[in-house]
Design brief:
Order of helices and strands: EEEEEHEEEHEHEEEHHHHHEHHEH
Distance between the termini: 27 Å
Structural class: alpha/beta
Strand content: 15-25%
Number of helices: 11
Strand order of the largest sheet: 5-4-3-6-9
Radius of gyration: 22 Å
Number of strands: 14
Bound molecules: zinc ion
Helix content: 25-40%
């Protein structure tokens, strides 16, 4: 839309334009293994409202997506808008995504979601909107790039550590999805061929060894063998259950077994990241996800392993830090993904059927 005139450079005064933010709305949806976030933004990317609630991806996809859809309709209504004013939806889901088709392929955490037609589902309610679906860690990398410290950084890796472990790769300023969309799926790199069984069917994957459920399993083992009095107390107070964050709490209280669990997890993640650093030579690694709240012991263990095992040239300028964007990073990335497609419509005709 026209917003007045600029300063003359000698000839006629130039007309100034800006994006009309009444054009419509964009939604960002970030589905994690245990939580979902839905946000509504205008076409400049300004978030108008966001809501977050627990979910469980072991439920059928219809149930989880119906809840996302319901929340979105409700947020649109609160902002005086109707579903047909929604121009696009950007979405992240916790599994391997065939980006061109917009479907999950063999997702270990939720096998029932395989090939579910997510776009068709949302088209039923939001018929004017395009739907772009990506892996949850890719949208986090895009969120870090659009509004975090990854802004202006050409080569970086965003690592999510939560129920699973994955990486989003920004190469030459763009998200790198690879040939089929599975680039960055580092959670299933083998750490120990004789290790525990992973949800993917293989043994000893990084995810099965170092992510949230592995941390919990080791904590329960420490309680059983009597090596962690603090974790025992926490479990007794919580009715026998332990969450990954309880291990962090015990560690802060000086519990040696809890500290060992966190350090081991950090070292295994760091060893895998060292290979990625040698292979890809990023300037930054940003770490996010639920386990990222674990503070310095985890970060120090990751850094130490990466520095120990990477080539000196690759680590001279390498920065490894926690993302400071918190739980917003996914929805911000999802909105950024949707805006990229909104304003690149002619380059991407097959996303707008
Ligand atoms: Zn695996």
């Amino acid at each position: 839309m026209e917003v007045g005139e600029g300063v003359s450079q000698g000839g006629r005064k130039p007309g100034l334009l800006r994006i009309n933010n009444n054009l419509g709305y964009i939604a960002g949806i970030d589905i994690g293994a245990t939580s979902l976030d839905v946000a509504l933004a205008d076409v400049t990317g300004l978030i108008l409202q966001r809501c977050s609630e627990p979910t469980d991806v072991k439920l059928k996809p219809e149930i989880v997506f119906a809840r996302c859809s319901e929340l979105l309709v409700s947020i649109l209504k609160t902002n005086g808008a109707t579903p047909d004013q929604l121009l696009g939806i950007g979405m992240g889901v916790p599994g391997p995504v065939d980006f061109a088709r917009g479907v999950l392929v063999a997702p270990p955490l939720m096998p029932e979601w395989e090939n579910f037609l997510i776009r068709d589902f949302f088209k039923k309610t939001f018929n004017s909107a395009f739907v772009v679906i990506d892996n949850d860690v890719n949208i986090m990398a895009m969120g870090e790039q659009s509004a975090g410290e990854g802004s202006g950084v050409d080569h970086f890796i965003f690592v999510k550590i939560g129920t699973g472990i994955g990486a989003g790769i920004i190469s030459n300023g763009k998200i790198h999805r690879g040939s089929d969309g599975s680039a960055g799926d580092i959670g299933h790199i083998c750490v120990d061929k004789n290790g525990p069984l992973c949800a993917c069917g293989n043994k000893g994957c990084l995810e099965a060894m170092a992510a949230g459920p592995a941390i919990t399993a080791r904590a329960l083992e420490a309680i059983r063998n009597g090596s962690s009095p603090v974790l025992r107390q926490i479990a007794e107070a919580g009715g026998g259950t332990i969450r990954p964050e309880d291990v962090n709490t015990a560690c802060r209280e000086g519990d040696q077994a809890a500290l060992d669990i966190i350090r081991d997890s950090g070292q295994m993640i760091g060893d895998v990241l060292a290979s990625l650093v040698n292979f890809f030579n990023p300037s930054h690694i940003f770490i996010g996800g639920g386990i990222a709240n674990f503070g310095n012991h985890l970060l120090v263990a990751i850094r130490r392993a990466v520095l120990h095992r990477s080539l000196p040239l690759a680590t001279t300028h390498l920065s490894i830090k926690f993302s400071r964007m918190g739980s917003n990073v996914g929805v911000i990335g999802a909105i950024s993904l949707a805006l990229d497609y909104l304003f690149a419509i002619e380059d991407n005709p097959h996303f707008f059927g």
